[in-house]
Sequence to fold (200 residues):
Amino acid sequence: MKARIAVLVSGGGTNLQALIDAQSSVLKSGEIALVISNRSKAYALERAKNAGIETAVITKKMCGSQEEFERKLIETLEEKNIDLIVLAGFMTILSPLFTSRYPRRIINVHPSLIPSFCGEGFYGLKVHEAALEYGVKVTGATVHFVNEIPDGGEIIAQKAVYIKADDTAETLQKRVMEEAEWILLPESAEMVSKAIIEER
Ligand code: GAR
Fold:
């Protein structure tokens, strides 16, 4: 039986789309059983619905506190017997209450070569703005296990992307997604799913 994957999203969901598309190719050992968004208007929810995947919306506002938010996430994941949690543009930091429950069972995609431009405050376009501001000539993406340190868990895969002289944060974000994130995330989800089913 395939590993049951939950994808946690907050926004456009292009990485979710890459995972959905990969289910007919590289993602052989896992199936996306659930998509959870912490924003009710996230376009990622439409992508999930179009693919016939069950969705849930859990917002911090709805729950009242970070702790209740995480408890609700855990409850939902357990109800659906989820084996692997994939953070795909999930724009909120999870506390040790959550991460300690799932050692090596949560992976995240980050749009830089960790340990550069990562940690609290580095998310989405801000990461690319920081890379351009610093003047690095190479950036990329990283998929890593999630632990209690923001962007500090063991690295699973990385891919480098060259920065062009005329790049803006937007053009760079798009190229890092196309050349790195959308490839690395499905490959990594497959690797971890395979390890999970082999452990059974
Ligand atoms: C992606 O670039 C992802 O790596 C980044 O947000 C974007 C989400 O796009 N995540 C982070 O910055 C997490 N720290 P998407 O919703 O189209 O997948």
About this structure: Residues 11 and 42 are 5 Å apart (CA to CA). Residues 11-15, 44, 88-89, 109-111, 123-124, 127, 177, 181 surround glycinamide ribonucleotide (CB under 6 Å). The mean pLDDT is 98. Strands lie at 3-9, 30-37, 55-57, 84-87, 106-110, 138-145, 155-162.
